[in-house]
Amino acid sequence: MTKTVATKPFEDQQPGTSGLRKKVPVFQQPHYVENFLQSIFDAVEGFEGKTLVLGGDGRYYNREVVQKVIAMAAANGFGRVIVGQGGILSTPAASHIIRKYKAFGGIILSASHNPGGPKGDFGIKYNVGNGGPAPEKVTNAIYERSRAISRYVTVDAPPVDIDRIGTVEVAGMTVEIIDPVADYAQMMEELFDFDAIRKLFKSGFRMRFDAMHAVTGPYAKEILEGRLGAPDHTARNYHPLPDFGGHHPDPNLVHAKHLYDALMAPDAPDFGAASDGDGDRNLVIGRGIFVTPSDSLAMLAANAHLAPGYKDGLKGIARSMPTSAAADRVAEKLGIGIYETPTGWKFFGNLLDAGMATICGEESAGTGSNHVREKDGLWAVLLWLNILAARGESVMEIARKHWATYGRNYYSRHDYEEVEADRAGRMIEELRAKLPGLPGTSVRGMKIEKADDFAYHDPVDGSTSEHQGIRIFFEGNSRIVLRLSGTGTSGATVRLYIERFEPDPARHDLDTQAALADLIAAADDIAGIHAHTGRKEPSVIT
Ligand code: VG1
Ligand code: CO
């Protein structure tokens, strides 16, 4: 029943920060999906008879691609595919299922925080046996293969009914359709003190969780309302929709502004949270206070021992380079390792596998731990709930005490989206050329201490990843970082990250943008962002 189909390479199948992401019509071209899937299978070895985990965030085209993956997995010789009911698996749940069932790897269908729908974005990501995103060595091999591919194999079989839980057979391969939530929810019960959180909700604690019509809805509904006894309507927008209701499922202050406003209102609930398209990001807002993801990482790390799963403490903390140094101060105080990696979760896998880091985080609203090999939105929310229950304090109190102890890292990210790729590239090139001359000079009265193009040397496998973002450090622990996004699908997105350390508690009440104004201006002086992009202001400020 296996058939071989002749094909020609597409030149644009290079995986970015997190898999291959393109507009839906690009993926809909004949052979496009098949070419990429076959390139994955050709780039890895030893899966004969083994298990592949499969699921996605439910966006437009998810169901069609699920069927293609099943047919091609059968033709390529996998023994079993485990697929989430309805083709649904959040990214962290997929990571867990790969690990729990000792699968060979997994395919996650998602473009995460990017909008969906027939004209929106789609994505395919390959995860390896540790449950984490394929490392660069593998994604490079997939790309190489995609440029030389001349055939793929598939089987002629009727589509599998992925809505019915159970086991079926496709061309000699087993397909198991599982409840996407159960295994994940059980793991959360093992990591956190559900009794304490239940008591918190019983005492009248009010929370609002916005699933943004994306994949976390069913998980949040079951865990928060079903298992933790939070009142009905705690989870909002919890039906996953193929177009996310027409919104960006990106939990930031722009796309989740309604949640922010609710938490700043006089009758605000105690705690607000949201997650993204595929459930790996989190937004955390306390009554009257937004917690930046960089701060959240630091606060979670400082308090993690309050949760049963982390009661023995942390081995180390890892953060992506653009993430603020707030976590570094916590690691220093705890006397544990701190690691700085390039953007993207794939760089944390080795540190987690080697037991060097327990908690990891990114400024882009991603936090996670060694329980899986992906960032995990609900996990972060549950750890916050566990900490709130254990400390009996509000988010505001916890944040203020944290800053008083460690100092505050004012932090913001400015995105310039859909800039012409050539112009963005030129800006980075020019800036790179300028770097050697910057140290020792002053901009707006601030002295530059160091400037470089970040390169990462993986302490576990010895590999090097270069050109991971331009860093300019100023005296007094301030810095700006500039890099181009690797997840966008049209033009280039310029990301400017700005950070300033403020040790003095008397100055912990400033407005973030005001506190960073001189650095923001300096970034433009140095890099010519406005002139290069032709934009007067960023499209998104978080
Ligand atoms: C962005 C974020 C990065 C994150 C990546 C995937 O990448 O900056 O921190 O790991 O998205 O997140 P980039 O290259 O666009 O800056 V997800 O939740 O979209 O899979
Ligand atoms: Co995501």
UniProtKB/TrEMBL annotation:
GO terms for molecular function: magnesium ion binding; phosphoglucomutase activity. One of its GO terms (biological process) is carbohydrate metabolic process. It comes from Pseudaminobacter salicylatoxidans. Belongs to the phosphohexose mutase family. Residues 1-21 are annotated as: Disordered. Keywords: Isomerase, Magnesium, Metal-binding, Phosphoprotein. The keyword Metal-binding applies. It catalyses: alpha-D-glucose 1-phosphate = alpha-D-glucose 6-phosphate. InterPro entries: A-D-PHexomutase_a/b/a-I (IPR005844), A-D-PHexomutase_a/b/a-I/II/III (IPR016055), A-D-PHexomutase_a/b/a-II (IPR005845), A-D-PHexomutase_a/b/a-III (IPR005846), A-D-PHexomutase_C_sf (IPR036900), A-D-PHexomutase_CS (IPR016066), Alpha-D-phosphohexomutase_SF (IPR005841), PGM (IPR045244). This is phosphoglucomutase (alpha-D-glucose-1,6-bisphosphate-dependent). It comes from the Bacteria.
